Amino acid sequence: MEIMEITENKDQYMEYLLIGDEQESMVMKYLERGTMFALYEDFDLKTVAVVTKENNDTYELKNLATLEIYQRKGYGSAMVKHIIQYCNKKCKNLIVGTGDNENILIFYEKFGFSYSHTVKDFYINNYDHAIIENGKQLKDMIYMKIDCGK
Length: 150
Prior knowledge:
- This protein is an alpha+beta fold and 150 residues long.
- 28% of the residues lie in helices and 36% in strands.
């Protein structure tokens, strides 16, 4: 397994990025200013992630995406561990925003993330279509955070 930083032509990964954030205009808001990582195994792309610097103390995991056929095989977990390690050298807090999906919240909790705050109606106000996960329309953005080493 190898995780590489992607510095050029980030939009060539849009197929993956749209798994984690399904509206291209939203992805484009952070893609160029963000640091992008790609996880490969046996020269095959498994997972991508984008992290942004929000201020001197806080970085945000904006996108984490694994193709469905590779999900639940540890690739997303390996990427989250890599990002936490990356952020430990750069900031005090790493945050991640996600929908009110119990499986995803539990996924982040296992790395030490805890509830931070909620942005009401985020998905309704920022997306041009309904975002559905597990048969439920997402409305609010749930933010979780973890303290980093800096």
